[in-house]
Design a protein that fits this description.
The structure holds 3 protein chains of 3 kinds. By secondary structure, chain A is an all-alpha fold. Helix content of chain A is 77%, strand content 1%. Chain A is built from 14 helices and 2 strands, in the order ααααββαααααααααα. In chain B, a hairpin with a 2-residue loop joins strand 1 and strand 2. The longest helix of chain B is centred in the middle third of the chain and has 18 residues. By secondary structure, chain C is mostly helical. Chain C is elongated. The two termini of chain C are 43 Å apart. The chains are: A mainly alpha, B alpha/beta, C mainly alpha. Chains in contact: A-B, A-C, B-C. At the A-C interface, helix 1, helix 6, helix 7, helix 9 and helix 12 of A face helix 4, helix 5, helix 9, helix 10 and helix 11 of C.
Amino acid sequence: MFFFTIRRLISSVVVLLASSMLVFALAVASFDPLAPYRTRQPAPSPEFFASLRTQLHLDQPFFVRYFTWLGGVLTGDFGQSNGQTPVGPILMQRLGVTARMVVAAMILAVLLAIIVGVLTAVRQYKPEDYFFTFITYVLIALPTFWFAALLKEFVAIQFNQVVGKTVLYTVGEQSAGINLYGTSSEIFYDRLGHLVLPTISLAMLSFAAWSRFQRASMLDVLGSDYIRLARAKGLRRGNVLVRHGLRNALIPLTTIVALNVGLIMGGAVITETVFVWHGMGEYLLMSIQRSDLYPLLGWMMVAAFFIITFNLIADLLYAVLDPRIRLT
Amino acid sequence: MTPQARQTDEPASGAVLEVTDLDVQFPTEDGLVRAVRGVSYGLRPGEVLGVVGESGSGKSVTSLAIMGLLPSNARVTGSVKFRGQELLGMGDKDFSRIRGKGIAMIFQDPMTSLDPVYKVGYQISETVRRHDSQLSKKAAKARAVDLLDLVGIPNARDRADNFPHEFSGGMRQRVVIAIAMANQPDIIIADEPTTALDVTVQAQVLEVLKTAMDETGAATVLITHDLGVVAGVADRVLVMYAGRVVERGAVDALYYKPRMPYTLGLLGSLPRLDDAEKQRLTPIKGSPPSMVNPPPGCPFGPRCPLHITACDDEEPELVEVEHDHSAACIRHEELAGHADPAEFFDTDASDISEPVVGDAIPAAHVSGRPEENL
Amino acid sequence: MTTAEKPTLAKVPQEEAKQEVEREFTIKARSQREQIMRRFVRNKQAMGGLLLFAIILLVAWIGPLFYPFGFNELDGTARSVPPGSNGHILGTEGLGRDLLAQIMRGIQRSTLIILIAVALSLVVGMTVGLLAGYYGKWVDNVLMRLVDLILTLPTLVVLIVVASNFTQARTAIGIAIILGAFGWLDLSRILRSQILGLREREFIEAAHALGASDRRVMFKHLIPNMLGSIIVWATLAAATTILLEASLTYLGFGVANDTSLGKLVSDGVSAAQTRPWLFYFPGIMLLVIALCINLIGDGIRDAFDPSNKRVRA
């Protein structure tokens, strides 16, 4: 198990490095950081362009630029946005904002998926099954931003009216300036209020897909011989369901969840845009619009890092849960 | 008064298991399938009953019905009494107390019978602790190790901490047997325990099964399609066809004096190593009938070499042909004294897939590539 | 006594005249095809989805011939009017363009996008998957590592970055190509692992022994056996494409000049409160189409592999 972990860890690092090269190539090929300046009136002087080029290392060959950047990243320096403000701190701060939503959404989606998946499997072909199957079908076919807009424009307002005060917020990740005047618990609840709708929007698509997967996995497991043997041993239904059924049926889910991290990140970008959060999503779109190279690089590296990390965790978790694969 | 009441070879009270008129039906897309139709038998304590039949004869469904492990859409009627207590209709709470302790079961495929994520020792302790809540984990583990030792797993103490995938098929089946005997059951039902195993391993596992029967003193129901397996182990034999019992009796009676053509056919298709002369095998042509809409008359009729028109009128009842021996054939007397299958069955195996009433797919012709001998 | 008729496969072969190698394998596929079709037809949800989808497509393409308003026609007298006014069945948007006409046009463009994107992904995915699975070893290694590498980045983000590069490609076809260029990753993995399994089966060995070339094996034997996965993937990819296109457009990187269903939906978001018809109709339409495609895809999957239907032991 130990060596398995070490091997996977090393392999992940290698992939991360390769990914960084891909990211760099992709970003560099996409952007001309000088583009915003080319169209300015009055046109900046050639000397300005020349000095900007040197400043942004644009005169150097690809690999030199790559390693310079990579070296910087490894020491925590993500370069500078438009040659001025450092990328690193902004990136981290916005990461914190987005992470709240992503983590909450993933937890929500996984829990709901397990519950609904098991329920619909155990009650196959009964009304509950049809009901949830219908809902998941609809959720999978729903465009995330449309659903988010629906929640934002209609559910929030109605809910707040019913309750009598603003509980669910639709704009931003917290009320403006609350850090300055609020107590920690006020800040906490304020953020929570802002978190609810975006989390639900983001979670729904994943929940729908995962619960159908979990249902299939559960049905598969429930039909197997060892479940029958467990019952033949005299174990009660509920016991068998959880101890032998769920325990086996959860294993494939870990892989699926890990594989979907990329999708969730994409979804987060969309959700943040709908709810006007000042997180990673906004940062990404801003950087692209401004042809700002280093923020984009930093963004992609962070994204790749998390995806690779999640894959690693999923691999390890799988090995923990399924003794059959520990040998590899 | 049911026809079965005529039987005097039914064990009296003192029987550990009494199955009466067991009937199991499944609704399917094609109609109602009657998998088991009026099966009755008794099992005395310590007795070994062999249940023989082809796939689809209803032998597995019968035992699943006894254990209460049929899917919820199955319709079960009749009576199954375990030590006088009626099992059919019993709630899961009570039934699960009997499973694994009063009646234990061994399934066919050892490769899939064990949960792959739990250690083997745990899976044995699990059943021990379920039926004895006072027992500590340590004590249960010790008992598991003892049981593994008993079924012939070398190095039992260490092996108890292994996972099922670290065992071979034969070893896994031993573990399953260990689980079955763990709580000293009164009855062990072994559903084709050796079918999925290599021939050499089969013999070993049967030995282990015998050990289990000796250790626990349990009555055993050994279900198989292999008459050879039954010969060495069983006291009495039940032959099933198309969901019914077609012959029943002591093992010697059935083997040497079969009174139902199907039994005779089964014996004929069994390779015998103890015969001095070489003899051809006599397979039974055709395949078992579909159980959705069985035609009236004896279900074995279309395949039976003794078939006459009277056979198609109604299904023969199980009648006593001698003491403790019953058969369901209207021509059973003619079989008395004729124990050679070759007398009645053809030795020609070439048209195995000839169409039979109600079910089989008609064979098509192929202009001959001689290699294509399927 | 019976004659010496050899027993054989159950169904009657229709093409006994063809070469022997083919006959062994393609016959099985043919009779299976009927079975699969029958299973699909019996699936009520799938058939319902198929029917609805067909109706929608029909209306989208034939409708404009009968409908008085064009999709780009500006009706100055009826700007932002709710459904039912002035003969505009679903109302109009800010510039006076009829919503129903726009939706019909949008569906046309979106289906075009789906076709192109899925076809492109299919070609690339099958190529990569076949090469990796069939030749194995280092080819497999390199290709799959490449796929894994691309997958370390969130797909939507990659699409955004690429789309932002090609500002001239903000047409339906341009977007379709971009979507297709990145939509094949899943498929290649699926096919590759299927081939790894099929490769070991005897009929492939037999084909090789009879001297079949690699290409022949791939096209005549492997692909027909993978048709199920391919078709299922294609339908689900279609649904994903249409939703991705909508998301891309919403974020500002999708179809610009022309209209598409995704564009209509994302445009409608800002009007959710003030002109709800612009929000609801396109959104519901997109939902229904994606739903139909999913139902069809699931129906096909169940038709190919009914084992997951009645599982409870």
